[in-house]
Every structure is written in C-alpha cells, then in structure tokens.
Design a protein that fits this description.
The complex is a heterodimer of chains A (1080) and B (366). Chain A is built from 36 helices and 39 strands. With 1080 residues, chain A is α/β, with parallel strands linked by helices. The chains are: A alpha/beta (1080), B alpha/beta (366). Bound molecules: adenosine-5'-diphosphate (2 copies) and magnesium ion (2 copies).
C-alpha cells in the first residue's frame, strides 16, 4: 500500500519537559517523525511545551506550538488548525496519555481527527495492566499473577496465594511512586499501607514476584499489510527487579538459544497483533526463568520508547522515522533501508558488534533519597557504547559516563560487600569488580546478584587481564598484553592506574598513550550498517575497536568536528544537544563536512543523518584524540557540549587540535574564580566580596571579614554541586568538616551571599569585534536559587532601565575582555542598586534554545558560523535582539520520584527539565509555564500560608490578593496572628506536632488547593518538610518563595479573567519581523 | 594456540585456535544469524564449507542434544570473533569448546571477522584452509588453491543416508489426518522431518540415489526433496528421478530440493557470488504480497528466466537481490522454496508451507 492520499495535515504531540523516564529520546523520535512526514509532503503541526527541543525549531513543522500538553490547550490547537490526523506514538507516555484524553473526551471525533499509528482501543489494552494480562491469557501467554486491592486485608489474602516477595504498585500516583518490593510480611504490610495511603484512589496492585528472572526486550514493528519484524533484542544485565531504565542493557541478547529466542519472537508477534497496534513500533518486555526457560510477558509500550531510541542507535534502523511512514500507509517493503540503499526496510537488522547501555544517576543531588534500584526508574540519563565484544562495549560505556573514576578507582566499602552485591544500587558494578578482584568466584556472585554467569564471566576476563597488568611497570608491560587489554576495552587511564609506578613516580595517562602509540596499537573504526557487512554501507556511522581493518574512509573536504555533551545529567541536558545539532546544521549549510562525536543514545545529535559523519564514542581525551588522528579536522567545537568537551579543551589544544571559537584559555579564565576576580577588579565590575579558604580557620577569617551569610562551595566542582548558604560560624565549621575536605590544592570558595537580590541571565553572541545582546532574562526567584532552577521571564518586567543598561554595558566589556568568539552567558545579581557579576560562561548556556525560540534567531547556528570565521554583520546580526511577547521559562523537578527529599530550592541545581509559556501578558505566560510544568493552579478554594518571620511583611500583599480572589485562607498560629493583626481573615490549622487533623491531613484529604510556604531558614522544622512532601505526593501547588507566590497569584488572577489562547511560534516570529520592519 | 586462515586469493588471517587442532579446508562462507550456532554446525548443507559467524560472541549458551540438526557437525571449519569460555544456559549439556573437540572441528577466533566478511562480500566465496600446524601463510594459500571447487561437486551423495529409515517422530497433524511421505535425503535437517511429522506426515527417509520406480512402488501420498550441500547440477540421478515423479505424486522441495526441482522442470541453476546465509532474509510471497523473514543457507539459485513460466509460476522473491525464492507448477502438484521454512535456526514466518504440502496431498487423494 502506498502513501495515504486522504490525509493532508498531521498533528504531532511531543513529550514535554525532560523528566526521569522521559528524556531526549522523544525529541529524537518526534524530530524524525516531523522530517519523515514533511518529506512525504504532509503539513505538520507540532505541539510541545519544551523549548529546548530540536522538534520545536520553527523550520521543522508548518506550525509549531510551544503550549501546555493538556487536552484543553491541544483542543484549542486542533480547533485552529483542523488537522486530519494525530500521531500519538512519538511523544512518550505524555503524548500518548493526552492523546487518549482527547479521544475519550470526544474532541478527536468532534473535529474528525483520526488517530494514526495506534488506535484508542489498542492503547487502552496495552496501557491497562489488567486488560493486557487478560489479552495475554487469551493468546496463551503467561504474565505475572496480580490483583488490584483496596485494603490491607485483601492484599494479605492475595499474597497468601502468590507468596513473598511481592511487588506492590499504587494506582495513579505521580511517577508510580510509593510502590516497592516486600520481602517479609512486615515490609509487605508497611508498603501496602503506604501505597493505599498515597494512592488517590486508595488502590494498589499486588503482583507475583519475578525477581531474579532474566529480563529481555524486543523492539517490534508492524505495517498495514500485517508484516511484522523484530528490530532488536535487548538483554538486561541486571535481572528482573531493576527497572530496564536503571539496568545496564545489552544488544543483541547474548544468553538465549535460537529455540528460546524464536519463542520470544513468536510471542512478540502474537502480542502486537492481539493488542492491535496497527502500524509502527512497540516495545515488549519479557522475563525468562533462568532454570527452566519459562517465558512471562511483563508489559508492552504501544509507541516508540527509550528502548526504541536505543534500538535505533544500536542497529542503524531508524524506528521512529519508519514508524511515521508506516502510519501514513507505506508498508515496510516499500521503504528503502537508508544505510544500504539497495535493500528494503522489511528485514531484521543483524549486528556484528555488541552494544551496551549504562544508566547515569544523580543521587549526590538528592542525599535523602533512597538509591536502591527497583521497579521504578531513578536514573536521569544514559550512555551507549559499541564494541566488537561485550567487554569492550561495557568498558567504553563506563568511561562514557564521565564519573571521573574507573572501575579500579571506584571507592567501595569492603565491610559491606555482601550487602552491596545483594542490593542493586548504582555502585553495584564497582562492587562486583571489587569482589572479582579480591578472588570471589563467578558462581558466588551469580548466587548473590542473579546476574547471568556469562556476563559475570566476561567481567572476570577483564579482571584477569587487570591482574596481569598489575604485575608490570610501564616499561615491562609486554606489547601483546597491552594489545589484549585495549581489545578488551581497558582505557589508557585504567592502565595507568593499574601499572606499577616505576621509581615511585605514578604512571601518567600520557605515558601509557605514548607507549601504546609507539607500539603501533591504535583503534580502527568500523561501521554500523544494519546487516553485518552483508551489503555495502553508504552511511558513515562509526565506532572504534581494536581490530585489523579500518572503514572510516575520511574525506579530504573542509571539515569541522562538534564534540557532544555525553549523558544527560542534572545541569547538563538536552539544551546542549540542541546547540550541538545546530552547530552541525549551520556548518553544513556553510559548506563544511560536519562530524559529530557523542555517546548519548537518546539524542538527535546521535541520529546518523544529523551530521555528515557520526562517531558514537566516549568523550574522553583518549577516544577523541584517536578520532582526530583519523579525521584531521580543520576545526573542533568544544563550546556547545557543556562541561564535557570543555574539560578536554585545553588538553586538545595542547595536543595541536584546532579548537575554534573563544580560546580555551579564556573559558578557563572565566572558570577560575581567582583570576576572574582579578579581571573584574581591573574592569571595575562589582562582584560579591569573596575569598578562598584552605582550612577551617581560614574559612572563619574570610567569612568574618566578608560578613554572614556567605555562600560556600568547593572550587573543583561545577553545576552548583555541594554549594550551600551559611548563616553563622557554627554552620560554616560544620560545612568545612562534613561537606568538603578543604586542602591547599582544593580550596573552598567563600562569597558574600547577596540576600534578597534579583538575579538575571544575559545571553550574548560575539564575533571578537561586535557583540550582540541576545536576551536578558529576569529570574522570578531571588538570587540564591540556582539559575537552572528558577523561573525566569524574557523580557524583564520589573527592572530599572539604567540597571538594565549597566548589565548590557558590563556584558560588552566582558565579551571584549575575554575575546569571546561565539556565545556567552552572564549571571548578574542586583542588590540595592548595585549590579554584581555572579559568573560568566563564555560558551553555550542552558538558556540558548529558550532565547532562540523567543527571538526567532537561531543563536547556536549564528555562533557556529561566527566560530568558523564569519562576522555577525555578514550574518545580518547588527542590533540587539528584540521580543514582542512575554516568554516565561519554568523548571521541572524530579521530587515525586524521590519521596523523602525536601523540595526546597537552593543554589544547587536539581531540576531535570524546563518548559516555556508564551503570551502577551506576563500573567498568562507564567500561568502557561506553570501548567506545563505540572503545577495545578487552582482558580479558587483554600490557600494555606506559612512563612518565616522575615517573610511575613512580604506575605501581606500576596495574602490580600488571595483574599480578594475569594480564596479561603488558613494558616499556622504565627502567620495567622500576623494576618489577623493586618485585618485579614484566616482560619487556624494545626502544625503536624500540634494535634489533628493537622495541615498534612488536610492536604491528603484534598482540603488545600495551594500552599505558600517559605523555609524557616536554618532551623528548618520537620513538619515543613512533611507539608512539602504531602503537597508533592498529592499534586498540590506548593510555592516556597515569596516572589514565586506573588507571580502565582498574578497568574491565578489572569486565569480567572481570561481564557488562555494558543498561538504558534511562526505567528509570534512573524509579528516580530513585521514590527522589526516597521521600526526604521 | 595460534591458527591461520588462508584464502586462495592470497589473503590470510591469523588468530587463536579453538576446538580441535589440525588442518582443514573448504569454501569460506559467512552466516549472519545472531543465534543458532549449534543448528548451523550440524546442518549437512554446510558440508565442504568453512563458516564464519558475523555475530562476535559464539558459544555463550553452550550446546545440547535437542538443538542438533543431524548426527554430527558437518562444517569443515568454524570462525568467530570470540568463543565463550563458559556455557550459560539451563539446557546446556556441554561447552562449545569440548563439543567441537569431541567432533574434531577446527575453529579460529580473535580474527577481524568483519574484515573477512567484507572481503568475501567483494571477492565472492573463496576456498580456504585453516591450520594450527602449518603457520606459513604462503604454503597455506598454495594449499587453498588446490581444494576442489564447490562448482560442479556432488556433495549430497557424501552426506545422504546409507539406507532408508522411518522418522521416529509420530505423525500428528492439526486435523488428525495422516499422510505417508517419502523424503529424499540430500543432507536433510531433523527439523524438516519434525515439521513434516507436525503436518501429519509419516516420513520414510530414503537415500539420494533412490529411483522414482522404487518410490512409486511404495505408493506414498507425497515426496519431499530435502536441502543439502554442494552444486545441484551434477545430481543427474536425482533430477532424473524427480522429473519422472512430477505429475504422478505431490512433490515439495526445500533449498537443494528446490534447485533439483528447478532442473527437473528444465531450468538452470547458477552460483551466487557469496550466497544467502542467515536468519533475516526478506522474502515476498508474490501470491499474497506478504513479506516473510526467512532463514536461508544456499550458494546456488534457480535462474527464473531459464524456466518456462507458462508451466511454472514464480511464487516467492528475495527482496534484497530479487533472486528466485519459490515456485510452483501451474498444473502439476509440485512446489518448492529456496529458503528454510523449518527455520532452526531462524524465524517461523514460513511454517505455513508444511500445511500447504498437507493440503496438496489431501487434494490429490480425492
Ligand atoms: N512481577 C515482577 N517481579 C519483579 N520485577 C518486576 C515485576 N514486574 C516488573 N518488574 C521490574 O520492574 C520494571 C518496571 O516494570 P514495568 O512493568 O516495565 O513498568 P514501566 O511501565 O515502569 O516500565 C521492569 O523493568 C522489571 O525489571
Ligand atoms: N554571591 C551570591 N549571592 C547570592 N546568590 C548567589 C551568589 N553566588 C551564586 N548565587 C546563586 O547560586 C547559583 C549558582 O551559582 P553559579 O555561580 O551560577 O554556579 P553554577 O556554575 O552552578 O551556575 C546562582 O544561579 C545564584 O542564584
Ligand atoms: Mg517497562
Ligand atoms: Mg550559573
């Protein structure tokens, strides 16, 4: 069947902000879908609330809406655009859920919009665990026995039947939180009770445990002609019980005989037919019993997923792109295979290498969180690595994680070895390695971890090599052993740590690298081609390995390498991938051959058709240098990938690599607070008083002389890590001894903490001569809350013009002083009329995509051209960029995934993603942003107010507004007394300690609609935390700053006054250009 | 221990010996299946061939008695990037290493199998020698040049059964009906026999040289032509027998059996550059328009243009290279496929063909 001709306009729904469990992979799938459908001549209407995505670039769709992903706003879009069809399967769970809502509520029928790819019924069967299990039974497949119960008694009766351990999953909790695995009756009762308590419908699913079974995934595709193919099989290194998203996974499956594999394949085909996913990709999870091979179906995702992104990158088969084409009528045999060109997409990729995916967690930012891995995903990012063997792939993956440690140097606690092997946690692999190093057997480790002996044996083989290396010094290391190590994926760095130091001098990485090169031991590059070399590959999608033949076949064109940003982590996410992709697009337009290096399988940058050539490699000095050796590029861009490439910049330059744009020295200068401080002083630009301390005593001195409160942080970490505001000497001492080990080489930085200061972000672009201010963003929250965690608005709404001018003037001065060529971001704080510089980042910043979407000018593209030598005026950038509407960016936090973590904001960044709200007025824009960020803004109801002493005055106007808006106000004793004194009505409510029903009871029973609660600063009290936790669990809007509170009432007022309207970026930008045209 | 694979065109690959020691030779071909190495090792169609597995890790799940496609491995030699030191699977009875040693199969690992495959892809299947004793590449290359070529060699006669026997598995068809089927053994795989039994066939396996008369004398419901190694052209005895069977009894052929039927129908066969070997080959059923993902293992093919298409209908086509994958006679009860509906290893998409054979026999009874 060829392309359908009855469809003209298709609506694609994105997945919204980056959250745990939904990351860049849906930008990748959405972007592919947009491209695929437009190349088929369809008109595409796209909606996504996340401005940091490539898919929301205005040139990827006819109409791009950055609007909340709620059925209301999407219904409004449908009303304006009248699409013929809706593709619900590329926007993750978010996109799918809202599509289902639109279908159920009749919106789709009303406007005659057809759901293509997956029909409502199919989605319902796949998504409803009970319906799905029934369907499985009907086709004779086994699934885990389970029962939905509403009481502890029922739960106990059922568990009597299935026995312990048991899996407990509360219904309808945010992020599936509140569940767990119970090993004994006590635990069982505790978890069930908690589950019933947190579930809004007081319901939990109790399920038979399959802990320790082998876990597999199949990526399946089906077309209208009912052809079904399996794109990839994925085996989990960590057995059942650890979420696939938190497991190391391997492709293809390694421990299944063909008989077992074909049974699974047959099952998958029966499942996709039974569930009735008409066309496109689905992800099906299976568990296999290690002792008798029995097969159990876990679940099916009737859409493209994180795993399908992984499968696409692992095989070279672009699942989302093909799925989009199938959705509009093509059959698999009508679609050519991009890589071989000659063969069709109706086949099953076969691969002649091994792929390993390894998750990355961020628990260091959520100290109170439980880092045990279970049935609920907790990782924030992942890397993929390709090697010819499992050993090579997994070791490449581990260094791609950039944890700054090798397996050898990981810190482990030998006394807790058994415990750490039994309990899956992020560190488990390090413990397995340690255990093998200290002579524990594969059998023993298998008993404890249930990890398949084959995988453990592979690690054992690595350890055997490592032990051989330990016998040698660099000079005595035999070339054969060295080659063997490299073939097994052991990095030069790991070798330098393993080798015996010769005459007391530790072995340097450089020395190992030298030795290796002198011995002529270098990697070659092989191609990912979907067919194990059976057919010629026309796509340079490459990975390194230590073998005989190199297929890199570099060109002699003028070429520029873009170094990517590696795994997502808090503080470095999709924004940087966005910038890297844009650099690549821009340079391609400028006629360069573009080469991308990255190791994050979720991203658009690792799509083989984003750049001319793709190296799927770790971003370490060793791996990047080997690419340089082969490609010999004319330029390398390190400015767009966040910290990852920046950490390599100086070394690459020293090694003679042509780093283009702002010089690594300038970037370094800006990071070095001491040198940078001197520069600011020379330039006469104010900065918060500061000093550095190498000891507790020094710290006391510095702080005393600067004056409290102070902001302290270690000098050697970034992203606001371990940053903290200290109010007195006592807490300072505490910080110095517990939080950091200060030492001469690792001093602690102490800044005067600017209280009640306004914070601003300024983004600018500079070509070395001219500098253009791209945007000034005003933070809603005061300084002290990480720029990445605060809501901000473009343009500023409250600032005095002369202060604004001063910030711009400082920006110009600094741009010149740092000889910036490319992008620059500055954070300012304004306190009582003085403008302070907090920090300068002479590189792409988190806000680049946001400002680009607001101004309609692709900053990263411009910057890339500038770095390649062009001038801003030649690119048509002659004056400061303007915006005519109000653009509000709001962060999104993972607190619902980490019960027990306090949601109070601070100088350490903890948000995983962001959304944007656009409108004519601040009120509407802010309201949209809040809604997109998942905050339930009540139109009326009960407001609970509780603030600390110093905030009481500031609370007054907010309280008044709530009162005017007819909210019923309740408050704790102190706040209430104050409000009454000011002539405001407020009902008294108990604190948690004081009696019942107390405030938390009210939150749980839905009696409170919004909470304004500022922390009591230092002596933060238990029930404060309890309040905020309850609010998160029950999805009650909870604001922890006064400025935030003020903005929220403002938004509520707007919501009551006017209905939110939707408009596309193209329209906003159009208006912008008209106005630009009008101004002479 | 060191071992070398040398090819007739002078290229050689040095790696590590695995399995048995010694020297072996054959036509070097590659298989792209990601699972099923034991079925591949024991498929008689690989007689005379050294098989390279493109999948880098081989041996992970060991070996077991159920997964054998015949009484012993038939490959001349086996090559992979890395053989597993341990066997990890609940069904495993013996590690691949000791299995290969026990059957005296010489294997080679730690070579750049991808480079090797790309070489064969461009040059075509080549004759080669693996040795763990002679380590001088030049001498081995010389030996490789003196191996007899696949083209024109009758290998079926060397792997066929000595005398006829009844297949142990009881006939159990979905509808209870049973049929008596005689299966020509040109190197038959056990799973074909199992699938026939599963389609209600009581199977008698007969040697390749069995005459049409002997077969008709036994008045079976149908005749099956099996897969097997080597070039179909020299098998005149089989072609002759099939020619006289056609039209007198339902005939179903697989792989070599398909090629023999092609010759019997007056067609020609030719040698493919490097063949089709793997479990992911897309085949279009020209009658239904559906695509089947198929298991394949053949170096020769029937040339569709050589067939009289007013008698013979082309039923299946390979979507990768448009070669003929299946045909049926327009008036006589005979059909055949080039690929392996019995899979093992490989996908089960084409299992319906056994039912089709059953239907055909049923119609001819009436
Ligand atoms: N019955 C079970 N016993 C043990 N582990 C389970 C069971 N069901 C699921 N899991 C584990 O929990 C993870 C998540 O379960 P899944 O049903 O896939 O939910 P999700 O929709 O979050 O992916 C799975 O990857 C698996 O490791
Ligand atoms: N002297 C200060 N006074 C008040 N707040 C500050 C001060 N210095 C930093 N901050 C706050 O801490 C946050 C993080 O500090 P910053 O220097 O930007 O570190 P990072 O490198 O993590 O961005 C800033 O966004 C700001 O809100
Ligand atoms: Mg899942
Ligand atoms: Mg900052």
């Amino acid at each position: 069947m060829p392309r359908r001709t009855d469809l003209r306009k298709i609506l694609i729904i994105g997945s919204g902000p980056i959250i745990i469990g939904q990351a860049c992979e849906f930008d990748y799938s959405g972007t592919q879908a947009c491209k695929a459908l437009r190349s088929e001549g369809f008109e595409v209407v796209l909606v996504n609330s996340n401005p940091a995505t490539i898919m929301t670039d205005p040139d990827l769709a006819e109409r791009t809406y950055i609007e909340p992903l709620t059925s209301e706003s999407i219904a409004a879009i449908i009303d304006r655009e009248r699409p013929d069809a809706l593709l619900p399967t590329v926007g993750g769970q978010t996109g799918l859920n809202v599509s289902v809502e639109l279908a159920r509520s009749g919106v789709l029928d009303h406007y005659g919009v057809e759901m293509i790819g997956a029909k409502l019924h199919a989605v319902e069967v796949a998504e409803d665990r009970q319906l799905f299990k029934d369907a499985m039974t009907e086709i004779g497949l086994r699934s885990a026995r389970s029962l939905v119960v509403k009481s502890l008694v029922d739960a106990k009766n059922f568990v009597g039947a299935i026995g312990l351990p048991a899996i407990i999953r509360p219904s309808f909790t945010l992020g599936g939180s509140g569940g767990g695995i119970a090993f004994n009756t006590e635990e069982f009762e505790a978890i069930v009770s908690r589950g019933l308590d947190v579930s809004p419908v007081h319901e939990v699913l109790v399920e038979e445990s399959l802990l320790g079974w082998k876990e597999f995934e199949l990526e399946v595709m089906r077309d209208f002609a009912d052809n079904v193919v399996i794109i990839c099989s994925i085996e989990n290194f960590d057995p059942m019980g650890v979420h696939t998203g938190d497991s190391i996974t391997v492709a293809p499956a390694q421990t299944l005989t063909d008989k077992e594999y074909q049974l699974m394949r047959d099952a998958a085909i029966r499942i996709i037919r039974k569930v009735g996913v008409e066309t496109g990709g689905s992800n099906i999870q299976f568990a296999v019993h290690p002792e008798d091979g029995s097969l159990v179906v876990i679940e099916m995702n009737p859409r493209v997923s994180r795993s399908s992104a992984l499968a696409s990158k692992a095989t070279g088969f672009p699942i989302a792109k093909i799925a989009a084409k199938l959705a509009v009528g093509y059959t698999l045999d009508e679609i050519p295979n991009d890589i071989t060109l000659k063969t069709p997409a109706s086949f099953e990729p076969t691969i002649d290498y091994v792929v390993a995916k390894i998750p990355r967690w961020n628990f260091e930012k959520f100290r109170e969180a439980d880092s045990t891995l279970g049935t609920q995903m907790k990782s924030v990012g992942e890397v993929m690595a390709i090697g010819r063997t499992f050993k090579e792939a997994v070791l490449k993956g581990l260094r791609s994680l950039e944890r700054g440690k090798t397996l050898t140097s990981e810190r482990v606690d030998p006394d807790n070895l058994m415990h750490n092997l039994l309990t899956p946690r992020p560190e488990r692999l390090a413990y397995i390695h340690f255990a093998l190093m200290s002579g524990h057997s594969v059998e023993e480790l298998h008993r404890l971890t249930k990890i398949d002996p084959w995988f453990l044996n592979q690690l054992q083989e690595v350890v055997t090599l490592e032990k051989q290396v330990q016998q040698h010094s660099l000079d005595s290391l035999p070339a054969d052993l060295l080659r063997e190590c490299k073939r097994s994926g052991i990095s030069d760095r790991a070798l330098s740590e393993l080798l015996k130091p010769s005459e007391a001098a530790p072995v340097t990485v450089a020395a190992v690298m030298n030795r290796r090169h002198n011995a002529g031991i270098r990697p070659v590059f092989k191609r990912v081609d979907t067919c194990a070399a059976e057919f010629e590959s026309y796509t340079p999608y490459l990975y390194s390995t230590y073998e005989g033949e190199c297929e890199a076949d570099p060109s002699s064109k003028k070429k520029i390498v873009v170094l990517g940003s590696g795994p997502n982590r808090i503080g470095q996410g999709i924004e940087f991938d966005y910038c890297c992709c844009h650099a690549s697009f821009a340079l391609k337009e400028a006629g360069y051959e573009t080469i991308m290096v990255n190791c994050n399988p979720e991203t658009v940058s690792t799509d083989y058709d984003t750049s001319d050539r793709l190296y799927f490699e770790p971003l370490t000095f060793e791996d990047v240098m080997e690419i340089m050796e082969v490609e010999k590029p004319d330029g390398v861009i390190v400015q767009f990938g966040g910290q990852t490439p920046l950490n390599l910049a100086l070394r690459l330059q020293a090694a003679g690599v042509p780093v283009i744009g702002t010089s690594p020295q300038s970037i370094d200068l800006a990071e070095d607070r001491k040198l940078f401080g001197q520069l600011l002083t020379e330039l006469g630009i104010p900065q918060p008083q500061n000093g550095t301390a190498r000891s507790k005593a020094e710290a006391r001195e510095v702080a005393a002389q600067i004056g409290y409160p102070v902001l302290v942080r270690p000098s050697y970490v970034l992203g606001g890590r371990a940053m903290s505001i200290v109010y007195d000497q006592e807490s300072l001492d505490h910080y110095m001894v517990t939080a950091v080990e200060a030492s001469p080489e690792r001093p602690v930085l102490i800044d005067r903490f600017l209280e009640d200061a306004f914070e601003y972000d300024v983004d600018a672009i500079c070509d070395g001569d001219d500098l253009i201010i791209a945007g000034v963003m005003e933070h809603i929250e005061e300084a002290g809350i990480h720029s990445g965690d605060s809501t901000c608005v473009l343009p500023p709404i409250m600032i005095d013009l002369d202060l604004l001018e001063r910030m711009k003037e400082y920006t110009h001065t600094l741009g010149k002083a740092l000889h910036v060529v490319g992008l620059m971001n500055i954070q300012f704080a304004i306190q009582s009329g003085t403008v302070y510089v907090l920090e300068v980042n002479p590189r792409a910043s988190r806000t680049v995509p946001y400002v680009s979407k607001a101004t309609g000018v692709p900053l990263a593209k411009m910057a890339a051209r500038v770095m390649a030598g062009e001038k801003l005026r030649d690119l048509g950038l002659v004056e400061e960029l303007r915006v005519r509407h109000c653009f509000v960016k709001s962060p999104v936090f993972p607190f619902n995934k980490f019960p027990g973590v306090d949601s109070i904001l601070g100088p350490e960044m903890r948000s995983t993603g962001e959304v944007m709200g656009v409108a004519d007025s601040f009120g509407s824009a802010f309201a949209k942003a809040q809604i997109s960020a998942g905050m339930r803004l009540p139109r009326g109801g009960t407001a609970f107010l509780s603030v600390n002493e110093s905030d009481k005055m500031g609370l007054l106007p907010i309280a008044r507004d709530f009162a005017d808006l007819g909210f019923h106000i309740i408050a704790t004793a102190g706040t209430r007394r104050f409000l009454l004194a000011q002539g405001l009505q407020a009902e008294h409510v108990f604190k948690v300690g004081e009696g019942r029903p107390h405030v938390v009871d009210h939150i749980k029973s839905g009696k409170i609609d919004i909470i304004i609660n500022t922390p009591l600063g230092r002596q933060s009290r238990y029930d404060e935390k309890a309040i905020r936790r309850a609010a998160i669990q029950h999805g009650v809007a909870c604001v922890t700053t006064l400025s935030g509170g003020a903005a929220v009432v403002n938004a509520i007022r707007t919501l009551r006054r006017e209905k939110l309207t939707v408009r596309s970026l193209q329209e906003y930008h159009g208006a912008l250009h008209e106005s630009a045209a009008r101004t002479p | 221990m060191k071992a070398i694979l040398a090819l007739e065109d002078g290229r050689s690959f040095t790696g590590r010996a695995f399995g048995a020691e010694g020297e072996t030779s054959g036509e070097v071909v590659f298989n792209t299946s990601m699972s099923g190495y034991q079925e591949i090792l024991t498929d008689p169609s690989y007689a005379g061939q050294i098989v390279i597995m493109t999948s880098p890790h081989i041996g992970n799940y060991g070996t077991n008695p159920e997964d054998e496609e015949s009484g012993r491995p038939y490959v001349e030699g086996f090559v992979a990037r890395e053989f597993s030191g341990i066997a990890s699977n609940w069904r495993s009875r013996e590690s691949l290493d000791s299995y290969l040693k026990r059957h005296n199969i010489i294997a080679l690992s730690e070579v750049d199998t991808r480079a090797l495959v790309r070489h064969i892809r461009t040059r075509g299947a080549l004759r080669g020698v693996i040795s763990t004793i002679e380590l001088d590449p030049d001498r081995l290359v010389e030996r490789a040049r003196h191996i007899r070529s696949m083209l024109g060699s009758d290998l079926a006669s060397s792997v066929t059964c000595g005398s006829s026997y009844d297949w142990i598995k009881a006939a159990k068809g979905p509808d209870g009906k049973t049929f008596r089927v005689v299966a020509y053994d040109f190197g038959i795989k056990r799973n074909i026999l199992n699938n026939l039994a599963g389609a209600g066939c009581k199977v008698t396996v007969v040697p390749a040289f069995t005459s049409a008369e002997d077969i008709l004398a036994a008045t079976p419901d149908g005749v099956f032509l099996s897969n097997g190694p080597g070039d179909p052209e020299p098998l005149e005895y089989a072609v002759k027998a099939v020619r006289s069977l056609l039209g007198r009894i339902p005939v179903f052929g697989i792989c070599l059996g398909h090629q023999i039927m092609g010759l019997a129908l007056g067609g020609k066969t030719f040698k493919l550059k490097f063949g089709h070997r793997g479990g992911n080959q897309p085949v279009k059923n020209l009658l239904t328009g559906r695509v089947e993902i198929t298991a394949q293992n053949h170096g020769f093919a029937v040339d569709p243009d050589s067939l009289n298409q007013s008698d013979v209908e082309l039923t299946h086509m390979n979507l990768n290279d448009q070669t003929l994958e299946g045909m049926r006679h327009r008036s006589l009860p005979a059909f055949s496929v080039q690929y392996h509906p019995e899979a093992s290893p490989g996908p089960h998409d084409s299992h319906y063909l056994f039912t089709q054979f059953q239907q055909l026999m049923l119609e001819c009874r009436k």
